[in-house]
């Protein structure tokens, strides 16, 4: 019988991200109206580290470590706690578990770290308690995933690269063999913070003002770059340093860049890292 599960929860970048102009009520998710999305999501090597262990006592315990542990709640507001609690409530089960989370992905950065953590805790619980979770059908899983966030279904899937659309429930795999030799940089500038809620408000206001969105793969770039021109400068610099593709990921404020070779990405990293508060280099595939 499995007593504990260790799992990596990878970050993602958005190779494209289109945000619908209108808001719709999501039938699978309670709350306000939501924008529909359509984008290409790619999991990258940067990952949080999660361990879920069975314990006695019938409580969910959470332990945090890592460079970004101080930036997220260490209580029942944390998405990993909410994911476990929501699953147990759904299936009428109250086991004791301890979740250990090493936080390596910067939060509120557009890299999807929180969503990935929530999804991968659910994967771990599915392995720990198969007799309780196997009866759940795909629609029940999807309803649970969407209560946690629109990126969570992608992270719960086994796909490395996918087109994600509607409210996040449509995840269609994309072949990505040609990308396996590429290297990726993700970088953040200091003192630039863009929460998801703020970014959506900015995009809505930008559109209401009649301004035209940039010719970009990500609809958030125009309003975010307008407010934070240093991010636009970083994108231009990454392209001038040889990136085949660069841009804002998610609603920001992280930037990504794809390079044909690890050595060229390494050289670019050396050029930009002194001005960044966070800079991570990895190889795809």
Write a structural description:
The structure is a single chain. The protein is α+β, with helices and mostly antiparallel strands. The protein is 32% helix and 31% strand. The protein is built from 9 helices and 10 strands. It has helices at 79-91, 113-128, 130-133, 138-148, 152-156, 196-208, 221-227, 229-240, 262-272; strands at 4-25, 33-55, 60-65, 96-102, 161-166, 170-173, 183-188, 245-248, 255-259, 278-283. The strands form 2 sheets. Strands 1, 2, 3, 4, 5 and 6 form a 6-stranded mixed β-sheet that branches. β3, α1 (79-91) and β4 form a beta-alpha-beta unit. α1 (79-91) runs parallel beside α2 (113-128) and α7 packs across α8. It is globular, with a radius of gyration of 19 Å. The model has no long low-confidence stretch (mean pLDDT 91).
């Amino acid at each position: 019988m499995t007593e504990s599960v260790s799992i990596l929860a990878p970050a993602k970048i958005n190779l494209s991200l289109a945000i619908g102009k209108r808001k719709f009520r999501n039938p699978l998710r309670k709350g306000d109206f939501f924008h529909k999305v359509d984008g290409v999501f790619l999991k990258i090597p940067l990952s949080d580290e999660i361990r879920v262990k069975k314990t006695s006592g019938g409580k969910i315990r959470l332990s945090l470590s890592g460079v970004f542990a101080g930036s997220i709640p260490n209580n029942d507001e944390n998405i990993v706690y909410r994911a476990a609690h929501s699953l147990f409530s759904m299936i009428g089960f109250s086991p004791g578990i301890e979740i250990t989370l090493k936080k390596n992905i910067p939060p509120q950065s557009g890299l999807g770290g929180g969503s990935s953590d929530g999804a991968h805790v659910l994967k771990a619980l599915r392995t720990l308690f198969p007799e309780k979770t196997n009866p759940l059908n795909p629609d029940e899983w999807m309803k649970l995933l969407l209560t946690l966030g629109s990126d969570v279904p992608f992270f719960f899937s086994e796909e490395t690269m996918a087109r994600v659309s509607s409210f996040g429930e449509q995840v269609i795999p994309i072949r990505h063999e040609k990308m396996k030799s590429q290297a990726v940089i993700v970088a953040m500038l200091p003192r630039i913070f863009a929460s998801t809620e703020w970014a959506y408000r900015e995009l809505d206001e930008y559109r209401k003002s009649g301004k035209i969105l940039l010719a970009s793969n990500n609809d958030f770039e125009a309003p975010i770059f307008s407010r934070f021109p240093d991010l636009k400068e970083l994108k231009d610099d990454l392209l001038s340093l040889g990136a085949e593709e660069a841009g804002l990921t998610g609603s920001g404020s992280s930037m990504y860049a794809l390079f044909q070779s690890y050595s060229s990405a390494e050289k670019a990293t050396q050029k930009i890292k002194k001005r960044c508060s966070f800079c991570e280099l990895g190889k795809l595939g």
